[in-house]
Amino acid sequence: MGFVTYEQEGYVGIVTINRPKALNALNTEVLKDLETVLDSIDINETRAVIITGAGEKSFVAGADIGAMSKMTKEEGAAFGKFGNDIFLKLESLPIPTIAAVNGFALGGGNELAMSCDIRICSENAVFGQPEVGLGITPGFGGTQRLERLVGTGKAKEMIYSASNIKAAEAYRVGLVNAVYPLEELMPAAKKLANKIASNAPIAVRNCKRAITQGYMSDMPHAAEVEEKWFGECFETEDQREGMAAFLEKRKVEGFKNK
Ligand code: CAA
């Protein structure tokens, strides 16, 4: 994969957007490579995925402005759908995803981070939706996911004004869960990913399904969704072992994903 690399470290997958000359901006090729990498992740061998950007300056500086500059209305809509479909695939990947935001997360970059389950960032990170300054709207989920994460007022302020926010402000408004010095970001992401990977994998995947599917439903339906995924955990070897270990006052030997 030219523009997106993948490494496996034990149960943790690391996806790196790798187009540093353009600050990892997303053109069609980068998005295609990202989709190919997402499709190739072995869900049985991988329990958490980290997404980051190559280099020390940028996570992803947005969709590629050069590529978009001459698009027709139809091409623009198709590009939006192309990105949205891949980010929806990422959002519904069965295993948890962590965006390790190592610099600029602008436009499509912030939208990529918001399609992950959890966001942590480095002190030099900058977040924003600069699209209205370019004459367009956010097009890879920004008008929808930002509001759900930071609330309507803050999302509208950021999107209408095209004002970027720094890491400390992103933490204050709940866009990221934690801020680290740049050199500590990937170790922190790996520590969190490994902590997730140490828990019962079927249960973790069912939590993600329950949260993601419930999020898109009204409360009565969301409660049914929760009941379904709760019930699906029972009779698994890991459920039996997890509860037996508690009752026998011993540690779980290691969950088997069965
Ligand atoms: N698209 C294409 N190329 C980009 C890019 C982008 N989004 N962001 C950066 N680059 C390129 C620059 O053109 C430059 O290339 P050259 O060296 O060939 O000139 C290279 O990356 C380095 O960028 P700068 O020289 O601009 O670096 P800087 O440190 O001075 O500034 C920056 C960094 C503030 C991030 C600035 O590059 C910038 O403002 N980038 C655009 C950010 C943006 O507007 N993103 C939103 C895009 S629209 C979108 O994403 C729509 C959507 O919702 C789907």
Ions, cofactors and other bound molecules: acetoacetyl-coenzyme A
Mean pLDDT: 97
**How many strands, what sense, and barrel or not for the largest sheet?**
6 strands, mixed
Q: What assembly state would you assign to the polypeptide chains in this entry?
A: single chain
Rg, Å, rounded: 19 Å
User: What is the name of the CATH topology of the largest domain?
Assistant: 2-enoyl-CoA Hydratase, Chain A, domain 1
The helical percent reads 40-55%
Query: How many H/I helices?
Result: 11
CATH superfamily of the largest domain: 2-enoyl-CoA Hydratase, Chain A, domain 1
> Which structural class matches the secondary elements?
alpha/beta
Q: Taking strands numbered 1, 2, ... along the chain, how are they ordered across the largest sheet?
A: 1-2-3-5-7-10
Architecture (CATH level 2) name of the largest domain: Alpha-Beta Complex
Please report the distance between the alpha carbons of the first and last residues: 32 Å
| DSSP summary, beta strand count | 10
Strand content: 15-25%
Describe the protein in words.
- By secondary structure, this protein is α/β, with parallel strands linked by helices.
- The chain has two domains: 4-197, 2-enoyl-CoA Hydratase, Chain A, domain 1, CATH 3.90.226; 201-247, Lyase 2-enoyl-coa Hydratase, Chain  A, domain 2 (Orthogonal Bundle).
- It is 48% helix and 16% strand.
- The protein has eleven helices and ten strands.
- A six-stranded mixed sheet has the order 1-2-3-5-7-10, with helices on both faces. Strands 4-6-8-9 form a four-stranded mixed sheet.
- β2 (12-17), α1 (28-40) and β3 (48-53) form a beta-alpha-beta unit.
- α4 crosses α5 (142-150), α5 packs across α6 (152-161) and α9 (201-215) packs antiparallel against α10.
- The chain is globular.
- 39% of the residues are buried.
- The model has no long low-confidence stretch (mean pLDDT 97).
- Residues 22-23, 25, 61-66, 83, 104, 106-108, 111, 130-131, 134, 138-140, 142 line the site of acetoacetyl-coenzyme A.
